[in-house]
User: Fold these one by one.
Assistant:
Number 1:
Amino acid sequence: MLPATHIRIHSIESFGTHDGPGIRLVVFTQGCQFRCLYCANPDTWDPHGGHTISIDELVQRALSEKPFFGRRGGVTISGGEPTLQRVPLLELFRQLHAYGINTALDSNGRLLNDEVKALLEETDYLLLDVKHINNDIHKRLTGVSNESVLQVAAHRESTGKPMWLRYVLVPGWTDQPEYLHALGQHFAGYRSIEKLEIQPYHRLGVHKWAALNMPYELEEVQPPLREQLSEVAGIFGQYFREVVVN
Ligand code: SF4
């Protein structure tokens, strides 16, 4: 068990522009309870892997990069799944807020308890990954149910704080028009959702599966074509204020 002053991480990226608003310091934490068939970072799954870093060191690094954050940027904690380390992350976010640094959390929505709710209160932007609206397909795709994901979204909506949804478009798996409409309809009344980001499936992490000696089930799947992405963006555009392809 790590002391609550440290976080176990996979890696850190400076000047990130893909994980939340503006220019950000992005910290990828170690450990994940999902087993997404398309995961590009299966090396983040092991909660005992990676290395540790102290909250103090992360705050100092954020302060050194603060001049580049501008009005909208800040720090994003991604994964793996960050809520596995909710206690030290809450302390980190409190300290970042004390220095006026904006916080974002990229989560798969697997956990919702009082500690996660406290962390979400200190989270300026929740980037919530919704992998599939159909629970059976969600289970096949990730190994777990989507129930908690929908509960996290409903909780965020109840707090009135902003949220972006993220949707990985995997041809043959997550592109069924009826389910895209169902997802849009599910979230249609949500006022907290500022935008939906479509993340095209890619194969950049396939070599990591081989390195970990794990069979890659989506061997035959290719990234979506531009027309496919526009089609899906068109459907989501009927339900969400802003839809972007990330
Ligand atoms: S939630 Fe993210 S890190 Fe976890 S298995 Fe899925 S894609 Fe990988």
Number 2:
Amino acid sequence: MDLKKRSLSMQTFFNERVDGYDNAHAGLMESKERITAALPDNTRSVLDLGAGTGLELTALFERFPDARVTAVDISEKMLEQIQTRPFGDRVTCIAGDFFEVPFGEGYDAVISTSALHHFTREDKTVLYAKILASLRPGGLFINSDWVAQTQEEEDERFVELEENPQGRSHIDTPLTIENERIALTDAGFADIEFRENVPESYTLSVARKK
Ligand SMILES: C[S@@+](CC[C@H](N)C(=O)[O-])C[C@H]1O[C@@H](n2cnc3c(N)ncnc32)[C@H](O)[C@@H]1O
């Protein structure tokens, strides 16, 4: 399935599920909170890719009440929920596709959780280079997301996606940690680390712009 079609299917999927979304993700709150714990004390400006309803932002604004966040998401209905949160006035929302909208620049950190496991390694390299360009020198990209445990698992999911182009609209295709490392390296990131996460099927990747 091509990128554009996939993005549009994600938009429909999440626009239709916004009502039950926070309950569905209640069990994943620790994976979202670990992002905030990994941020340096001097964090002020943050770009959140696939921010959804803003679940990861509660912990972030508790630790960094003066932060300013730019939230990008293709689902305008998910973003509407962010504006209703107590920190809504500190978030600038951009409705659009990661691969199409400008991100801006000079961020202390780019964060993402549960939102980037839908792309090939090649597409991720392009996206990661765009993320790198949006960071200030020394800035961090922190991604808390699902990873495939083996290359076989990664390959099987991409086959499933190709064999069901009109079937299920949402087939997840996480990469292995090894392929995540290659994509981050090829995009130009330094000091790449993969930390333990909860659940175990997730990893917390932390990468720096030199
Ligand atoms: C599972 S939700 C995660 C939301 C939030 N980060 C959290 O952890 O609760 C994934 C989000 O990524 C967004 N998304 C998926 N593909 C996207 C794309 N190509 N461009 C922008 N947003 C996208 C979806 O609309 C959705 O809101």
Number 3:
Amino acid sequence: MQTIRSMFNPKCSSDVRLDGKTAIVTGANTGIGKETAKDLAARGARVVLACRDMAKGEQAASEIMREMNGAKVVVRQLDLGDTKSICMFAENIYNTEKTLDYLINNAGVAICPYAKTVDGYEMQFGVNHLGHFFLTFLLLDLLKHSAPSRVINVSSTVYAMGKIQFDDLNGDKDYHPVRAYAQSKLANVLFTRELAKRTEAQGVMAFSVDPGIVNTEITRHIRRPLVDIAKIFSFLIRTPAEGASTTIYCIVTPENEMFTGGFYKNCARADSCRAGEDDGTALKLWAASCHLLGIRWR
Ligand SMILES: NC(=O)c1ccc[n+]([C@@H]2O[C@H](COP(=O)([O-])OP(=O)(O)OC[C@H]3O[C@@H](n4cnc5c(N)ncnc54)[C@H](OP(=O)(O)O)[C@@H]3O)[C@@H](O)[C@H]2O)c1
């Protein structure tokens, strides 16, 4: 069983150290984000746990510090569904961090009933895409200043089912939880492609990642019978640490072996499907996101 598991769940075997580096991980209080933060801290990085709920964040930080003597982790409040919170978070980062080497846009909400963010965007599009788009926009100067630096957007292979509904980005006319999730994950892939083009010359690389099927709290909105059926295929279901492997791979792999703008899974570059390579849609999404957020990002 262990051999079958390892066939389906490749691990990042690199022992690269990250002493002196600084990383931000969104949604770091649980699941894949917490394991990503733990791995980075074990490599010596200073890690900012960007969490919506400070109590949960402090709990995760205590766990990491208990497991690792001398781990450099701090918790900062960030609600990706609230642009004021994102602004305050970014301001705090500029006040406290001299450099930012890795921005890991990991937080996510999946397949939830229709809901809106504080700013009135549909929850999955608002948190998974717009929140991270805005956060990256605000932190880009620091990333450029710290170059070579990297942005990792945690997407999902579900993106291949996605379509960007430009006439109904917020699902006001027709909302389907799975469709909205797939749209948000496609947006992660398209944002990565466009960001990579715009920042390559300044030494900021960008990658999108599929963590695999991972046993986390992400299933909180998914109906019980479906979750139970999935357990039959338990050899395919990854632990949160295994789910963090491809993100870590995208951080520690040498620059000359990485393709900025690329989609990665199973600790390797993966073919992206046509929807994920549509540069016209990527550009249109960029413009629509700027318009919704009221920002100029050329
Ligand atoms: N698990 C999988 O099988 C799977 C597969 C493909 C892709 N992914 C992607 O992997 C990423 C991590 O998911 P996970 O599986 O680790 O899920 P998880 O255990 O549910 O963790 C999600 C994290 O995102 C945070 N979050 C949600 N809404 C937020 C907001 N408005 N502001 C700030 N943080 C917020 C959560 O905070 P709270 O604890 O406060 O809610 C939590 O820390 C997501 O982007 C997900 O789409 C997961």
Number 4:
Amino acid sequence: MNKVQIAIIGAGPAGLSTAIELSNMGYDDIVVFDREDEAGGTPRHCGHLGFGIFEFYRLLSGPDYAKKLTKIAADRNITINLKHTLVDISKDILTFSTTDGLVKYSAKRTVLALGARETPRSARLVSGIRSPNIMTTGALQRFIYLHNTIPFKNPVIVGSEVVSFSALMSSRKAGINIAAIIEEDKELNSFSILKSFSETILQTPVKLGYEISSINGDDKEVKSVTISKDGIDETIECDGVIFSGDFTPESALLQENFKDFNFANNSVFISQAFQTTNKNFFAVGNVLRGALTAFKCFFEGKRLAKFIDDSLKQEKLKPQHVKIEADENIQWYYPSLLDLNYPSKILTNLRVNKKTTGRIIVSVNDIDVYEKQIDAKTYTNIKIPREAYPVSKNDTIKIRLES
Ligand SMILES: Cc1cc2nc3c(=O)[nH]c(=O)nc-3n(C[C@H](O)[C@H](O)[C@H](O)COP(=O)(O)OP(=O)(O)OC[C@H]3O[C@@H](n4cnc5c(N)ncnc54)[C@H](O)[C@@H]3O)c2cc1C
């Protein structure tokens, strides 16, 4: 059994910034683990510019940003154990699968910074053929930026989140012509200007309100997709399909290992101190929700370091958690625990799962204590302020959406 004071799982922006900030505070017994063979997380395969402005005051590409973070960690002598996949955390023992077999660690504090992933085709229940040319944006970026390979020439993109336009830009840079962007909703799931940008400047049609009903071809090749709107089918010729966005936390392992798992969020319950219901485990970055930007995850990591410092210095400090629950109209929310030990201006941050005009209502033990009018899209960040709700440790706070 290896022992370490602080174990951080995930060498992306959230995990590395936590490690760097803890090192700045004087901690030197920190080990970061990652299943990949290089550190840096998702930005490693995002070859476009768009990273680093707030962290380093420089506009960087994803790979340069990942390298910069990794170099800072290396300069601080932070150990990064690569090719270590966390496979179990039962009884607080961290078990990693490595090329040398299973390796076990115990840590005083563990940070889960596992990131999020896009929902693949299998989970979207789209019928039709199987083909290697059906993939997520993340997989496409890996082909292009890590393996220097172009898997197809003329695919469609399904989805219209910001990441879908990242897939569009990466494709164009690699010489791939996108046949169309297909979105089930009647509006774009990101900034509306991206539609005219795609259609006029990039000559890529954006088809709103269309469902993808089947992927056609044979076992090897995609030949077309069938899309439908108001019961009328249309066929688009293409040689691949990129399922983009619809991010979900990388949390399968956590679901198995946490008694109290937040199924509404598909993640662990988390306080404003990033502490889970197991006081030795913290979670940070996109594992808390779908994908937000790298700088958001970076700054969360920096904030988390202070809470870990507190918890190590005040071993006797017991969390005073009040659970926050949310209804099914809420796409994700965090924090999902209010720790009464810490003051907080925000009760929680959330997003809705469809375009909504209505009211967000907060209740404590089923009595409504706060409401707020909203006119929100799926990518609108909503903050619920922590008003002076009188709550005590065993209360339940519920958030519901009425449209
Ligand atoms: C296509 C695309 C384009 C993007 N473009 C931008 C942009 O332009 N600007 C921007 O600011 N953000 C962008 N983002 C978002 C940004 O990449 C993420 O916000 C950021 O990487 C999240 O950081 P993280 O540390 O939470 O997770 P990640 O960066 O995903 O890191 C998680 C790490 O955990 C590791 N891991 C997961 N499970 C295990 C396990 N069981 N054992 C060991 N290791 C594990 C993974 O290997 C990974 O290295 C983009 C994202 C995508 C997908």
